[in-house]
């Protein structure tokens, strides 16, 4: 396979508190900023920007104030006119787009690394757009090699840039780090340490890349989301009438086969997986997804070949 | 030890949603009510009242709207005058006191069984007031004998009735059931099933008691809360500067000895337990306690002897 030359990385942003009750980023971003100041400017070659994305939601320890900020970064929302009725998060998305973008432009930061938590047993999951984003795919490969105390996995969203809705899509090579399980409003030291390992490894990789060293390609596995499953719901109240089955709870990334138990109704009945095709469930029983009508996503697993890359240092 | 005669139990209330984001009770109370209706009135000898305590907080999936409802049941708050500025939860507490109390009166229901969740690894914990409340202590003994798939423990609060602040203190023999770990806003089938086992066992016990059968006494172990520990905090921001140490996280009810690790600062430093006296930590890293300045409570373990009891059926 050919070797691909790519421009050096000029700027990286580390963002936390995009969801105000996902506490690892809320605590890690200020800590990384403090450590950076302590070490002085010489410590990192690539300038870092630290951002608390939704400070009002962080203060109230809520996911968001009026609207999920991490669904506000489509081109349409970023260019919508601001009026007195515009939700806080739409205004904040436009501010962040000015600071870190503009999205899709040459001026946008190269990497936004956005720190999230999930109540699901997802280990360390890298979420990224497009399966030809070599920088993101190489970063995943590096994390997978370096971090062995927790499963490291890659989820790819195949959405055109203009429709990509999350904060990291403002940058050229956006990466969302999801670490779980962690309850909303709680900071666990084990989850904090995994996230810190992840961010440190990403920053180390960017410096290796910028040094001009050839970074070898290879094969990686990615999960591609196919569909979402909602909870069975009471037709009168609209509320869930079942929970995720105990045999499926915490089994994110397993392979569901037809007939496997997926839900247990509150009256004790087991409901089975009825899809023809075996698929991998993820974000199982994520707290924030009840209101979105998602009990879990279902994904294909696919092997991708990625080329060797090298920074254009000359 | 003597045998104590006590009046029969005339009414039992099962309450959920006292905290609107503790989902087991939110789903279990309507399910129990539905099952009760299905079986018809003959199914249970003791009339049951089912209550969703804080319906507004349940609707918003928040712990509370203006004030923690489960701190509003002191005699002072229950008798405070209602004005336009009175928080919703104080009004609701007075409504619930009319429905299930009045607290401290002969008319109060015998048992309020209030269903709670915690993000801490507390298994099934019974919380009750006073170590001479024989009904509550016998119910705990029964649960401990019947439920073997999860640890069952008793926490006793030694607070005079008028100062007792939680919903179950409105009844003559109040019991709070805490099951965890479960994130806020999430319903886990395993936790749901443990809570249902607990409630079913309590209701079975009340019918055995009311039948007039002698219920043998014995010895039980109880945890008595001595003090609370807050997170180390940044003196400038007031925010936690450390998380619970990974070696302590999820170890509720262990015995902490001087020198044991309790916190890990975000910069990586371990802080140790410095109390002279070994104590048992509980509610470790409960999400709702960050705002209350509590990282965990510390308790003594004590063995209590309880007498045989028998209902005054004649």
From TrEMBL, chains A, B:
Q: What coarse category fits the chief subcellular location reported for this protein?
A: membrane
**Succinylglutamate desuccinylase/Aspartoacylase catalytic domain: residues covered:** 10-204
Q: What is its EC number?
A: 3.5.1.114
Q: The AstE/AspA barrel-sandwich hybrid domain covers which part of the protein?
A: 219-300
One GO CC annotation: apical plasma membrane
State if NADP is listed as a keyword: no
Give the protein family.
Belongs to the AspA/AstE family. Aspartoacylase subfamily.
User: What is the name listed in the Swiss-Prot or TrEMBL entry for this protein?
Assistant: N-acyl-aromatic-L-amino acid amidohydrolase
């Amino acid at each position: 396979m050919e070797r691909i030359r790519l421009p050096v990385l000029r700027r990286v942003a580390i963002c936390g508190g995009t969801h105000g009750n996902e506490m690892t980023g809320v605590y890690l971003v200020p800590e990384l900023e403090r450590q950076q100041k302590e070490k002085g400017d010489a410590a990192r070659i690539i300038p870092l920007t630290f951002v608390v994305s939704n400070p009002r939601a962080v203060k109230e320890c809520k996911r968001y104030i009026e609207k999920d900020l991490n669904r506000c970064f489509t081109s349409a929302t970023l260019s919508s006119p601001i009026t007195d009725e515009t939700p806080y998060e739409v205004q904040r998305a436009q501010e962040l787009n000015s600071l870190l973008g503009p999205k899709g432009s040459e001026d946008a930061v190269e990497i936004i690394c956005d720190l999230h938590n999930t109540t699901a047993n997802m280990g360390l999951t890298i979420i990224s757009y497009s399966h030809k984003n070599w920088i993101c795919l190489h970063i995943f490969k590096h994390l997978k090699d370096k971090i062995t105390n927790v499963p490291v996995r890659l989820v790819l969203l195949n959405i055109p840039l203009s429709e990509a809705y999350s904060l990291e899509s403002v940058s050229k090579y956006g990466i969302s780090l999801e670490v779980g399980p962690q309850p909303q409003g709680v900071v666990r030291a084990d989850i904090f340490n995994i996230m810190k390992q992840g961010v440190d490894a990403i920053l180390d990789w960017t410096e290796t890349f910028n040094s001009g060293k050839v970074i070898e390609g290879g094969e990686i596995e990615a999960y591609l989301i196919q569909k979402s499953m909602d909870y069975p719901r009471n037709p009168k109240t609209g509320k869930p009438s079942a929970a995720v089955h105990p045999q499926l709870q915490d089994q994110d990334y397993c392979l569901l086969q037809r007939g496997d138990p997926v839900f247990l109704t509150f009256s004790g009945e087991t409901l089975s997986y009825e899809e023809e095709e075996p698929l991998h469930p993820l974000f199982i029983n994520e707290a924030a997804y009840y209101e979105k009508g998602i009990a879990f996503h279902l994904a294909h697993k696919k092997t991708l070949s990625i080329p060797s890359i090298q920074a254009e240092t000359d």
